[in-house]
């Protein structure tokens, strides 16, 4: 007996990376709409509006806004039990600070969820997946501002009420901990909706913004349970285990410290309080945080029902004598792991690390685990006969699912589902490229904006269908 009978096999996407229709149905501008395309080597550029002559790949996405029926039929053909997507906040509240939601936006997701349910596909929904209404960043400074808590909780409440009976599985913030690399403007913007100005203390601002998000998440969880006690509301963490580069004790301690810095968000979501090492860090650095007694009570009362996480890679870290406090600096201290291979984009591929991650979380938390993203970004080629022979992708999934299976079977991990990322090709979040593909379904669209948007089944489509039909036995 390995995967439970009701295991949630499916796939994952996010609104801004595939919907397009960026000004349709009364939608307001979202922060993802003002980020330009990047490339394999250059990061995307955050702008403060839409500049003439720039290309914004999220404006069209893969036109899922108009083609979702066709795409969901393909997911159903693969046998999906669930489908993870997100709600574009700016479809529901175009500016983010209105009191009344936009009916056309609500109706779009009603239809989308109904279409899933028609095939017995359970929607799994992220409330904020790297986006928020642009107005909240320009008028309020994004998550630097406590006011955002109120706006987010209103948005969450409207969604929980509207989709009651249709959506049971929710997540609050996608990869909330990605901002731990506070030196990276791009991650800060997607997570928190602001870019640091010269002279700002990035680290302190990151902790403050993340605190407001954690409080907003906890309040939303509580509200959701009041609306429907049956809701399962999870967090979403980018799970990137950090190994010590060697067994030198200082490297081991450095790795432990790096894990604390990257994953304390999970502690707050799952246990309802800050771990002592973070409180000590703030004290040592003299950070005066805006954290009230009510906030602490809210965190305690709003623990998540499950831990959703993405898993793509592991890191390794070495200690430097110049760092006596063991402060984590992702850019300076991470080292290449010679024991694993990397994707074309340098992401270190480590299937055994997935089993390690599942065990690590099981040892610390009581909530069930849900792998809501995993996958291989790769260049695919359409052969003259029209087929896409993505054996490299199949091999990647075979190895990862085999490790998941051992974690469930041999280690007793309580895993409830698996939704590979970008089950249909979509816009890459980090590069804005179309040709970094993850899908079982190919979409004819390219970095240079050409393409018919036609969908094609890749070889991995038929393979994943077989995996689902055998509940993970036939890999
Ligand atoms: C995660 C994000 C997704 C997604 C994925 C793949 O960090 O939650 O939105 O895009 O990574 O990353 P990329 O698109 O940069 O290859």
UniProtKB/TrEMBL annotation:
Keywords: Glycosidase, Hydrolase. It comes from the Bacteria. The keyword Hydrolase applies. The active site is at 373 (nucleophile). Pfam families: Glyco_hydro_1 (PF00232). The keyword Cell division does not apply. GO terms for molecular function: beta-glucosidase activity. InterPro entries: GH (IPR017853), GH_1_N_CS (IPR033132), Glyco_hydro_1 (IPR001360), Glyco_hydro_1_AS (IPR018120). One of its GO terms (biological process) is carbohydrate catabolic process. GO terms for cellular component: cytosol. Belongs to the glycosyl hydrolase 1 family. NCBIfam families: PRK09589.1, PRK09852.1, PRK15014.1. This is 6-phospho-beta-glucosidase. It comes from Faecalibacterium gallinarum.
């Amino acid at each position: 007996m390995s995967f439970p009978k009701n295991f949630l096999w499916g796939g994952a996407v996010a609104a801004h990376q595939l919907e397009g229709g960026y000004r349709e149905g009364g939608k307001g501008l979202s922060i993802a709409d003002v980020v330009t395309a990047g490339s394999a080597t250059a990061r995307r550029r955050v702008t403060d509006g839409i500049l003439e002559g720039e290309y914004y790949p999220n404006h069209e996405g893969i036109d899922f806004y108009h083609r979702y029926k066709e795409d969901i039929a393909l997911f159903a053909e693969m046998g999906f039990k669930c489908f993870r997507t997100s709600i574009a906040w700016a479809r529901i509240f175009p500016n983010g600070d209105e009191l009344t939601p936009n009916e056309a936006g609500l109706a779009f997701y009603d239809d989308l969820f109904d279409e899933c349910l028609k095939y017995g596909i359970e929607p799994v929904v992220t409330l904020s997946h790297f986006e928020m209404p642009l107005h909240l960043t320009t008028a309020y400074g994004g998550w630097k501002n406590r006011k955002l808590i109120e706006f987010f909780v209103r948005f969450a409440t409207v969604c929980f009420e509207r989709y009651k009976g249709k959506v049971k599985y929710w997540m609050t913030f996608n990869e909330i901990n990605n901002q731990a690399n506070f030196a990276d403007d791009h991650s800060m913007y997607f997570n928190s909706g602001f870019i640091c100005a010269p002279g700002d203390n990035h680290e302190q601002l990151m902790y403050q913004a993340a605190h407001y998000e954690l409080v907003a998440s906890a309040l939303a969880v509580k509200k959701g349970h009041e609306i429907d006690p049956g809701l399962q509301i999870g967090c979403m963490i980018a799970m990137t285990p950090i190994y010590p580069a060697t067994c030198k004790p200082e490297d081991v301690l450095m790795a432990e410290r790096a894990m604390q810095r990257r994953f304390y968000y999970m502690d707050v979501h799952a246990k309802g309080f800050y771990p002592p090492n973070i409180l000590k860090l703030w004290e040592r650095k003299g950070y005066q945080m805006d954290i009230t007694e009510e906030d602490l009570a809210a965190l305690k009362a709003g623990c998540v029902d499950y831990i959703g996480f993405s898993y793509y890679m592991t890191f390794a870290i070495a200690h430097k004598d110049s760092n006596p406090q063991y402060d984590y600096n992702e850019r300076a201290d991470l080292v290449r792991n010679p024991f694993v291979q990397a994707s074309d984009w340098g992401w270190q591929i480590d299937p055994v690390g997935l089993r390690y991650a599942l065990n690590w979380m099981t040892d610390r938390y009581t909530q069930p685990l849900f792998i809501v993203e995993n996958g291989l970004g790769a260049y695919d080629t359409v052969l003259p006969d029209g087929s896409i022979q993505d054996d490299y992708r199949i091999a990647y999934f075979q190895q990862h699912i085999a490790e998941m299976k051992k974690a469930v079977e041999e280690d007793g991990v309580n895993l409830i589902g698996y939704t590979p990322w970008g089950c249909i090709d979509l816009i890459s979040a980090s590069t804005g490229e179309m040709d970094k593909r993850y899908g079982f379904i190919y979409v004819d669209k390219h970095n240079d904006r050409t393409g018919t948007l036609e969908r094609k089944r890749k070889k991995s489509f038929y393979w994943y269908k077989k995996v689902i039909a055998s509940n993970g036995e036939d890999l």
